[in-house]
Amino acid sequence: MVDPFGRTVSYLRVSVTDRCDFRCTYCMAENMTFLPKKDLLTLEELNRLCSAFIAKGVRKLRLTGGEPLVRKNIMFLIRELGRHIEAGTLEELTLTTNGSQLARHAQELYDCGVRRINVSLDTLDPAKFKEITRWGDFHKVMEGIDAAEKAGLKIKLNAVALKDFNETEIAEMLRFAHGRGMDLTVIETMPMGEIEEDRTDRYLPLSKLRADLEEQFTLVDIPYKTGGPARYVEVKETGGRLGFITPMTHNFCESCNRVRLTCTGTLYMCLGQNDAADLRAALRASEDDAYLFSAIDEAIGRKPKGHDFIIDRVRRKPAVARHMSVTGG
User: Fold this and answer.
1) What is the CA radius of gyration of the chain?
2) Which of 165, 204, 161, 159 is nearest to 182 (CA)?
3) pTM of the model as a whole
4) What residues are paired with 277 via a beta bridge?
5) Which residues are registered as beta bridge partners of 97?
6) Taking Cα atoms as reference points, which of 254, 293, 299, 297 lies closest to residue 275?
7) Which tens digit of pLDDT belongs to each residue from 10-42?
8) Contact predicate 97/67, CB 8 Å
9) Sequential DSSP letters for 200-233
10) Of 63, 90, 91, 238, which has the maximum CB count within 10 A?
């Protein structure tokens, strides 16, 4: 699959649910209205859609949410997708998780062919963790990370950089992650979805964060890539890697190889644009995949050159109205 700008689309991110057992303040309102369960694709339909993308050239597949591991019977889908790993038609099956359910699923994830996961963690302070997630249990997440490491899963921590919340903790998080053999990626907050707080109060440019870190560490740019938008540096003092994802200060669209599928079968060709394709209709219109393949091709043909993320300081509105949990984190 090649888009109009010559980029090969080989990476599919799939939101299997918009629901989550946390209510992170920068991501969701506390009293969220979630999609009716009847609107969601079944796990069998998600498997068929993912398999269609794999047949068309997707080589990396990441499951997201919401929190993917709260979807009922989610391991059925992961087992089915793991068969593509066994067959050699899929190079990597991975997921992004808040870690709350890892303790009970880590070993089975490994058994299904998952080798690497991202765990979202914005602070190492249990009290601040409770504040930012509203409903989260820090110690449960730590147990999940321990279980994942024991199962043999490689872990990368993702931290959203938030002004006046964790900007002074990133150095400690870096030492923690690298001390356990984990990479750390820091992410600028993205203007998606209406939430109670004003993102202009939380926005922290990673250029400033990097400058602050360079007062303590030697950061050397390296060409390392994982398939996502992060740009990596090696931290000389720890020997570990630190990634920066900068949708606001540095548009990373020129190398975008990703599309995003929601749990309702909507395909977003760009995280920061509203143009989308309804693959649920194509999926249910025929049991023959030819029609579905055609709908996927048409959608890829509309993939835009880039996003237009901006935090609107005048109207104080998000750049994109839908919440991140709908599109997939």
Assistant:
1) 19
2) 159
3) 0.87
4) 267
5) 119
6) 299
7) 999 999 999 999 998 888 888 888 899 889 999
8) yes
9) HHHB--HHHHHHHHTTTS-EEEE----SSS-EEE
10) 63
The set of residues, in sequence order, having a beta carbon less than 8 Å from that of 187 and lying 6+ positions away, is 158, 159, 160, 161, 245
In sign, the C-alpha dihedral spanning 68, 69, 71, 75 is positive
For residue 70, the one-letter residue type is: V
Quick one: CA torsion of 284, 285, 291, 292, rounded to 10 degrees? Answer: -20
Give one word for 264, left, alpha or beta, with left for phi > 0 and alpha for psi -120 to 50.
Answer: alpha
Residue-wise pLDDT for 204-243, tens only, equals 899 999 999 999 999 999 999 887 788 999 999 999 999 9
125, two tokens: 């302070």
Residue 200's alpha-carbon distances to 15, 28, 159, in angstroms, are 27, 16, 18
Query: Nearest Cα to 21, choosing from 101, 117, 88, 113?
Result: 101
SS (H, E, C) 19-67: CCCCCCCCCCCCCCCCCCHHHCCCHHHHHHHHHHHHHCCCCEEEEECCC
What average pLDDT does this structure show over 144-159? 98
From the list 117, 238, 230, 125, the residue with the least C-alpha distance to 177 is 238
Polymer length in residues for the chain: 329
Q: How many CB atoms lie within 10 A of CB 63?
A: 27
